[in-house]
Amino acid sequence: MKKLSVVFILILALCSSLQAQENFSAVIKELTGTVEIKKSGSSEWVVAKAGDFIEKSTIISTGFRSMAVISLGDSTLTVRALTRLSLDEIITMNRSETVDINFNAGRIKVEVNPAAGSRANYTVRTGSSVASVRGTIFEMDTVSIRVLEGRVNFGSADTATRSVTVNANQESQINAESNAAVNPMVYAEIAAVFPALRGQKESSEASAKLEFGSLDVNVDVELNK
């Protein structure tokens, strides 16, 4: 009888755990241009539209001059033009959302805004870097990151190298030679080498080319008057 009671308690605990943890779908809030999705296990690309649900392991691709804004629980993911990514994990458990994004081309903006009393754990992986956050706003491509609010733990996909903390209004990128994240203070000094263009408005963006080792990387640099 005692054994049956223990088994019953374990079954109840397992059921409770399964109810507490569940996959949730993202949804496309708005889009422009050409946006396509490919569901897990499918070989067919489908043209996306506003209101479409995005499930775990779905691949999202945007075309030239295209963009998609995706709602992920309490957070928002903006997929810029010419980007391909997959949502490898979308789980909510005990008022905590876990999202794992994997992309190797393009640029994204992530706004992580957990509701009061809840948590949001985001991990963004590329072939070169990993960014881990719990509540912030940042933009990144496959090798560089710019934090707008909060802070992000940013490092190389090679776990043997040390990551750096990138705070609000700071940037970093992966050094191709050392395969490590550049200290944000060092990155700021490099970016300061590029003077503001004549007639450039304050807080406008221009494309600058930074050379690290054997890799030339195009990044966005904030220019001031």
Give a structural overview.
The protein has 225 residues and is mainly β. It has one domain (21-185): Sandwich (Jelly Rolls). Helices cover 12% and strands 52% of the residues. The protein contains two helices and 21 strands. The chain has helices spanning 2-20, 184-191; strands spanning 21-23, 26-32, 35-38, 46-47, 53-54, 59-62, 67-72, 75-79, 84-93, 96-105, 107-112, 119-125, 129-133, 137-141, 144-149, 151-156, 164-167, 170-175, 180-181, 204-212, 215-223. The strands form three sheets. Strands 1, 3, 4, 6, 9, 10, 12, 13, 16 and 17 form a ten-stranded mixed sheet that branches. Strands 5-2-7-8-11-14-15-18-19 form a nine-stranded antiparallel sheet. The chain is globular and about 45 Å long. The model is unreliable at 6-21 and 196-225 (pLDDT under 50).
Can you give me a brief rundown of this structure?
The chain has 225 residues and is mainly β.
* Percentage of residues in helical conformation: 10-25%
Number of helices: 2
Shape: globular
Radius of gyration: 20 Å
CATH architecture: Sandwich
Largest sheet: 10 strands, mixed
Strand and helix order: HEEEEEEEEEEEEEEEEEEEHEE
CATH structural class: Mainly Beta
Q: What is the residue-averaged pLDDT?
A: 78
Question: What would you call the structural class?
Answer: mainly beta
The CA-CA distance between the termini, in Å, is: 79 Å
Strand content: over 45%
Tell me the domain tally. 1
- Please count the beta strands (DSSP E, at least 2 residues each): 21
CATH topology category name: Jelly Rolls
Give unreliable regions as ranges.
6-21, 196-225
